[in-house]
Amino acid sequence: MFGKVFESVRGLQVVTLTIALLAAPIAFGKSEYLIVYVSEMTEMDSETKGSYPKLASLLSQYRSESPVAFVSGGGNLAPSTLSSLDMGSHIIDLLNSLEPAAMVVGKREFSFYEDQLSLRAYEAAFPFVSSNSTDKLTQGRLDGTVDQVVVELGDLQLGILGILPPNTLEEYNVKRVVLAEDPVELIRQKAEALRASGVDLVMMAYSCCYRDYLNRYAEFDELVTSGVLDFALGKDEHLLLTDNPEMVKHPNHIWIAQGDEVAIIRIHKDENNHFLFAASKESMNNYEADADVLEQVEDYNRRLDTLLSEPLGRLETDFSTHLPSIRSRENPFGNFIADALRNHAGADIAFLNSGFIRAERDYVAPIELTRRDILAELPFRDHVVLLEVTGGQLLAAMENSLSQIEDMKGRYLQVSGMQVIYDSSLAVGERVIALKANGQTVQENQVYRLATRQFIANGGDGFDMFLGSKPVPYEGQTTRLVSDLVIDAIQVARSIAPKVEGRLQDVAQVERP
Amino acid sequence: MRQPISIIILGALSGFLFLFSLLAWMSYDRSEKTTALLSDIGQTALPNMHNAMILNMGILEIPYLNEQLAQANSQAMRRIVNQEILNVSARIEQHLLDSKQANLEVKFQLIVDELANLNALVQHKLNLAVIIQQYETELYRYHAEALSLANGSSDLSIWLMHFSSVVTQANRSLGLTGLQDLRNMRVQLSAMLNEQYQLIEGLDPSVHKLAETYTLTLNHLLLADNGVIALRTEQLRVAGRVAGRTNFIRSLVSDFIKETDYEMLVLQQSLRGHITLNTQDAEKDARVFLLVYSVAFCFIIVSIVFLKVRVLNRLAHLKNRVLAQVGGQPHVIQIDGNDEIADLAGAFNYYALKAKEHNEKVEKLSLTDALTGIGNRRAFDEALKHDIELSVALDSPLCILMIDVDYFKNYNDFYGHQAGDECLRKIAKVLQYTVTRKQDFVARYGGEEFICILQDTDSKAAQQVAQRILQAIEALHIEHKTSKIAKHITVSIGISCRGSGGALKVDSVIKEADQALYQAKAEGRNRVVLRETSMGLALVNPANP
């Protein structure tokens, strides 16, 4: 429903702007500046998630016409198969070829934690912008980042601000960084300061995701409406999944929702030095791949092909890792991973958050699973921990798991050795009806051996009930990543057939959109 | 039920042989298994772990070499480090081959390839630096040249100032670190160079060419496809790539080390599992071995006990019995059981019986009393019959002396049978020495009874003989504590005579003698009593006053 409204408003905007543009042919001929904005490009060359070679061609074309500021909204460094190996270096390399004016630091840039992010910043020949974050260690910027960028765009000075969503720290388990209490006020102050120093235009780029800003959205819109910001850009592939009536208000407050979409802002300065903005969207797929960048991409593919194409074993049953299949119900692959964790640690029970599983693919048996497949699904590098937890903690964890089911957030747990019966129609925090471990009802004070991700043990995704639990070290724990364990398990079994087994049952059985 | 010893002994020996063989086999088997395990450890597990260790040590050098390569600031340095990398890699690859770890080989190959890549990148980076350095030098040179050439020429001064400002800007570009900034710089320089051309237009034709040449060259130096701006852009990208590649290799090596650690752990666990299994196996075997050994031990003990009790003891018993038999009275030997030894006892009993019967037969046939050596009852009967007939034929007197040892039973009881036998022998000897005439006969009549036949002897002479016998026996002084009438052995003698004329029956003669003896006993023993048969009267004649 929201999608339709959004589309219709979009359409209205385009019509309005086209008319405006047609009515001002003189303005067209005058100075024109371009902002090219993309975001969330985790794949090197993909039809659905964006292609760097094609984007390069797009940029070449526009750069031959006018001054261009190419801004990346972040969310690029992970998750992807290659990133699981090089932590995003290849993306920085490709971006270097495209010469961005700036890249906004998004929450996914923290996938491998703060220090790796800093390393990437030093590999980049462009600034990493993060306006609302501070490093606790230095009380200043996170190493390698800046809080704003002023770019020369032809004869204009363009100020670029970029923000992280408020749930970054929790979702990505970031410990060293603090976010500004009031991002809206912060942006306002920075924008005003920039203008005071002589900057002509100020823009803000959001990093994913739309749903994360909803409770401040109206305020941000007000910044655009009131002219504090000239425009604000964001991208969220899953924007249309949000079941919320909040709409884009101001035409300069732009969100793109398709993986291959590029936002183009045409800026016209008229005789009176007033700016007119015309926003449009284009698909990268309309362009031919740039040969040099394509060669770069193919070089990366070649180098890692032998390793990634290694066959692991056969898959005999079907499953999907699209968000609805994995973040709101029991998933066969989720079961398999949880089982692998439990077996490795020799635990009673195991679980992991479904947000760990990323590829959003369909699998139709029988197929041969390769290392590439598994790394695409499990690109985050994380270790197993074995914890001794009480039944009380388990119950709290389960309630947390079910607390954001409607938004299909990644904290939804896939389990092993447990059975959970819940009602998603009940209030948050009261959704668990029955909780069993190995067939026995979970007792409040009984201690269980739980295997899970380091991320969850460190309190990520709201699982702070485990922060006090001391991990139980076991042999072989630190040498295997979770992805390694899953690969091992498939290789040992040679053929796997994971199934839904009734570990997680929703009594309400509400249909998710 | 029959329990043949031969079968039992055979069975016992077989049983023991079997148990012994079992124990020996178990020992051998266990020793084989342990040898196999040790051999396996020695040939597989230990070398594997050694390999893993060597591998780990080799791999730990790589991160350091990685950093060194990235930071190499000359081609020579780069070459040295790269050669070291190749050496270490070759060593590691050899170890991977030796230990046949295919999955590690693939991963290490990636590391090697990436290092080669990095090497090429670093080479490129260093080349670029050199080229840019050259450009920089060229730029300065050009600038200096232009300055010197145009110095003094007022026409060129404006153009020169502008030219200098372009060069200054260009120099700035070498310090820019942002690609966007470089791009902007390119645009700016391009605009400035256009201004240059415009300036040149307005110059005097004489200097026009000169200025144009310099400007064109500057343009080329800066903005050509391989110009300074392009090179600097490339340099930034390569720097980024070198950093990225180095970081990537570091990450790969770190993963690889974890992988080898894991492999080593798996090896260790497998080995431990192996050993534990073997130990459990060995313990189990040891228990069984102990059990079988205990059984064998008990078996031996039982066999020994059996041999002792059922065979040796009974054989000894049999031997004793046989010896006892040979020495003394014949008894039936009782040997319990139903086996060869019992058979042996039975056989012996049979032969003993037969011997006894034979002896008895022989004895029956003999006329000699075995004990004393004088005549026996049978001899006496024959002799009496003969003598009576002779006495009747010759009508000569005949006398019989019946001699009985006084309180002989008491003597036997008190002094024992052997003493009794010896006593009888002595008495017999006395009789032999006393009754010496050829026609007289001495015999042992019964247990303690002796009898003499005195041919052609009347009652008076018989009495004298009897007296002589009494005295002789007294002279023997055989101690007899249990005699009621004396302290030594005495005898009682009963005489019966037959005078001349009249028939004489054997029975009646003996009967008369017997009666006389009886009388002698009744009158107090140790005396002689005579009874005349023909008269039917008894004449009492006290032996000693």
From TrEMBL, chain B:
Transmembrane segments: 7-28, 288-309
Gene3D superfamilies: 3.30.70.270, 6.10.340.10
GO terms (BP aspect): cell adhesion involved in single-species biofilm formation; negative regulation of bacterial-type flagellum-dependent cell motility
Enzyme class: transferase
Cofactor section: Mg(2+)
Pfam families found in the cross-reference section: GGDEF (PF00990)
Domain of life: Bacteria
One term under GO cellular component: plasma membrane
Catalytic activity as recorded in UniProt: 2 GTP = 3',3'-c-di-GMP + 2 diphosphate
GO MF entry, a single one: diguanylate cyclase activity
UniProt-listed SMART domains: GGDEF
The enzyme's E.C. designation: 2.7.7.65
UniProt keywords, alphabetically: Membrane, Transmembrane, Transmembrane helix
PROSITE patterns assigned: GGDEF (PS50887)
Annotated ranges, domain GGDEF: 396-533
PANTHER family in UniProt: DIGUANYLATE CYCLASE DGCM-RELATED (PTHR45138:SF9), REGULATORY COMPONENTS OF SENSORY TRANSDUCTION SYSTEM (PTHR45138)
UniProt name for this protein: diguanylate cyclase
Native species: Nitrincola tibetensis
Lineage: Bacteria, Pseudomonadati, Pseudomonadota, Gammaproteobacteria, Oceanospirillales
